[in-house]
Fold:
Amino acid sequence: MYRLDNGDLFLKAYCGLDGSLPEEQYRVIYAEPEGKTVSSDEMLREELARKDDPTISNEVMNWSARSHDNGQTWLRCGAPMGDTLGELRDGTLITFLTWVKKRDNQKVIKTYRSVDQGKTWTIHYCPIHMPASVKKDGDYWVYLFRKAIELDDGSILVSAYTNFDQPGVKRRRIIVFRSTDKGMNFDYYGTVACNYNVEAGGFTEPVLQKLANGDILCVMRTASGFPSYQCRSTTMGATWSEPEQTGFTGVDPDLCLLSNGVLACSYGRPGSWVAFSADGTGRLWTHRTCIWDTFGGGGFYKKGFYKAERNCGYTSICAIGPGKALMALSAPLQVEDQGIITPWDPEQLKNFFIWTVPIDVKLA
Structure:
């Protein structure tokens, strides 16, 4: 989920689309890297079904929605939304697909770009340059994740996780790429975290957040049931501190900075949680709050213990107003139905939907 400067919210998910939602339409223009239009005036959801583009295979799982009223109501839309999204100071929206693949014998990121607040989008295949030591994982080299942030000098920073080809080492690391031409080309900028002694296979699922003091914070996952870690950059992403534990356990963290200066972090598994850094620096996380209680019989937090994986633990959070945040998570439509226990079963997945929960955050 991402909030634009105009206040609109974009939300992307792999399941849980409410078919009764009204629809808002967007147009997508296909373009080669140099910008030459090869087809136009096609609806994105129709283009996603094209079989001649090998970079499209995983997109058909996605759906997206847009809200003009801070999440009170939502509109289905064909607007593209990859796992990495950002808005530049000039209003340009850019979103990248997760996986880096090869096209015309060149490693590229499939990128969607809009200069009219998401009414129309152009598609580009942007070259991404990485060290030769990056190890291919299945069909992909790196997995881009979460936010793209624009720095004070106009460059764009995106985070990813990958393996380096190092004998005997299979644990993943977090790296960052930087673009100096508004996201048309990306270069490897450095490693954020690669402590090979960390439990459970290394670091994955990073999120970047620019803080009020100019620092960049990166919070990242290790594995289910293992601690989350974070690193900090005071050099606009060029160098990073050593990884340190956040004090909470979970997967797929997300960060947002609220107008009152509080930094919020959502995370999950088990359940769905949010933690807060009162001074906005992320150096101390407190007031950890359970929003969805996986083990408490299902439902929005209640005491008890019923061991069932009743949501996937993947969350998102964004600021929606003064001292207010909106958190998104997955859960069964019928929250009290004890027969619906896991989203990992294809049949039970049909019963899981996306919920959004408003959160008021007040300083004592």
Q: What stands out?
A: The first helix runs from residue 44 to 47. Residues 252-364 form one domain. Helices lie at 44-47, 346-349.
